[in-house]
Amino acid sequence: MRRLSQIMLLATFVLSSFAAADATAQLPIQYPPVSENAALQYWLAFATMPTLDAGQEKLLDNWATAPLDDAVNKLLDQSQTSLMFLHRGAQLRECDWGLDYRDGAQMYLPYLFKARQLARLAALDARRAFETKDYDQGHDDAFGMIVLARNVGKDYTLVSMLVCYAIEGMTVDLAAPYIPDAHASYDGVIKAFKALPPSPPLAQGVLCEKRMAYTLLNQLVEAEHRRPGSWREEWKSIFGGETADPFQDAVRFGEVVEIMEKFQSTYDELAELAALPPHQFDAGYLEFAKRANAASPIAKVMLPAMEKTVAAQRRSEVRMAMLLAAIAVVESGPEKLAEIKDPFGSGPFEYRKLDTGFELSSKLLENGKPVTLTVGQKKSAPIP
To answer: Hey, how many other C-beta atoms are within 10 angstroms of the C-beta on 185?
Structure first.
């Protein structure tokens, strides 16, 4: 009897253990929340990128034309973890690079080089995917590239905006040869494009420059408080000995403070100009620059090179618009262009049929010639 009781007790314990295990298996697993900050995913992508040898550096530099051979396959196989984090970052809406703008002109932006390198890896991976007709993979890589570009520009420094435009241009160069084969839906692509993070506004970049200038003034004031007369050494340490000293005639440090404080309003005026439509900016910028340089001795040093930045922004904008228009042409024919306006003209893009593919051109000029986009022409042979 005693043995029977022991057996029943053991059986009850075993059955209850199975029941508990089954109940535990059915409970949902509670994971810690994942940060919505895409920058953290990008930093993981940068950290897991392979260390490149000279040959691999050359492959990335020539991502659009390099033979898709074993060397490329090896590099891309080593880069899949980085590309995974790139794609994860593309799904997040926030991006904070953790900058401290109080560092001013000495603020470090180490992610800019890494972002361009990651974009080249994605472009090479996408090109291989397109050549093997894996259009879903190619689309994911291209989408990740353009989201990365927009997120890089979110710190609103003008140098980061230039990197943003460069990566966007890389995306256009990647996609254009394969549009006729991809059979993308124009409406679907437009919907996805509108859901992207916004392109960084140039006016915000100018106001970031104003913030940098104010930080510089604080650095000079702090140096002067530590040791009277040392503000000039601080200036030279920031700008280097090759930059002309705009304060060489200043007798009192108070004069420097007055000049720099007065110059703050110049940034506000330039930001208002940068927010205007292109033709209004062009009509007012040259006169503004002339007046600003005449009014302040620091204008040549402190004013950003807006001509370069504006030109890069416009080229990026119009080439992206032509890429979207090219999808419409492939889907519905060149007559569809009548419904799509050239952002820098009064009508549609111009269309020219080529022996292979076609060319679109804009009224926007670069070095005196229209900006164009060639569609459907590959620069290299397919995979052997």
So the answer is: 13
Are 149 and 167 a contacting pair, CB within 8 Å?
Answer: yes
Going by C-alpha positions, the residue among 376, 325, 368, 373 that lies closest to residue 347 is 325
Identify whether 374 is part of a domain.
no
pLDDT at 32: 87
- Tell me the DSSP string of 176-198: GGGHHHH---HHHHHHHHHTSPP
C-alpha distances in Å from residue 49, one per residue of 23, 77, 268 = 42, 11, 41
Residue type, 32: P
- pTM for the full model? 0.88
Burial class for 378, CB neighbours closer than 10 Å (0-12, 13-18, 19+): middle
Q: Is residue 29 part of a domain?
A: no
Which residue among 304, 330, 362 closes a domain?
304
Q: Which two tokens stand for residue 34?
A: 């994942």
Exposed/middle/buried for 147, CB within 10 Å: 0-12, 13-18, 19+?
buried
Q: Which residue spans within the chain are E strands per DSSP?
A: 350-353, 358-366, 369-375
Pick the closest to residue 173 from 126, 108, 136 (CA basis): 126
Q: What is the pLDDT of the chain when averaged over all its residues?
A: 90
370 in a structural domain:
no
- 177-210: pLDDT as tens digits: 999 998 889 999 999 999 999 999 999 999 999 9
Contact 50, 80 (CB under 8 A): no
State whether the Cα torsion 245-246-251-257 is positive or negative: negative
Same domain, 162 and 267: no
Residues of the chain with pLDDT under 70: 1-27, 241-242, 380-384
| Structure confidence by residue, pLDDT tens digits, 219-230 | 999 999 999 989
Coil vs helix vs strand at 372: strand
- Among residues 200, 228, 244, which one ends one of the domains? 200
Do residue 228 and residue 166 come from a single domain? no
Number of domains composing the chain: 2
Query: Would you give the distance in Å from CA 335 to the centre of its chain?
Result: 33
Range of the domain at 217: 203-304
